[in-house]
Amino acid sequence: MLDVENLVVRYGQATALDGVSMQVGRGEMVALIGPNGAGKTTLLNTVCGLLEPTGGTYRLDGRIAQVPEGRQLFADMSVEDNLRLGAWRVRNRDPARVFEVFPPLRELRRRVAGTLSGGEQQMVAVGRALMAEPDLLAVDELSLGLAPLVVDDLAEHVLRLNREHGMAVLLVEQNARLALELCPRAYVLEAGRIALSGSSAELSGSQAVRAAYLGGAADETPLPAADVTP
Q1: Residues lower than pLDDT 50 in the chain
Q2: Can you give the residue ranges of every domain in the chain?
Q3: Cα separation of 48 and 46, whole Å?
Q4: Among 69, 109, 117, 220, which lies 20 to 30 A Cα-Cα from 57?
């Protein structure tokens, strides 16, 4: 679905991505975790066509749609109008299919988006991406600024999209615990490079990952796991 090879992205003289390679298979859920400023959003914006790479390549086999960090809704427009904007490249602009995924949005369809709660706005942001009928859903910081119960509900919806509709998901997330619980496979991006990759179970058992992202001590006994791919 997505094949990234030795991708390089620069902002002027600053290198944001330095030889990044990663893959997302059809129908797969993959997490990309790392600290703030590691280049996660830059990678997402590049494969979504918003940034031009300096070097390397990426290939998409299908349609990708992004749920941007911070939701980026049109605050003075209705929920329904925000959703319809996501369908600008497809013929079907009826949001009924989104209301099936997020039933609360049906009742909120006439509400001005800026008056919604953070969780409701995130539902609109995901729904807007779904209006593009993507094969790959790229979600940037699903949990940002939201209460744990709201995040759990949104995560369940994303899982359902993957399991019931076969939609591939690339989850870019600072909340490493959430990302590794949702996605079977993950990459760790640090300072513009892939530092680690492997199954989420392997990464959860890595002392480095536990210390940096899961709140564990560097010298504590890790969970049983296979080798992690550097």
Answers
A1: 217-230
A2: 1-62+136-142+166-230
A3: 5
A4: 69
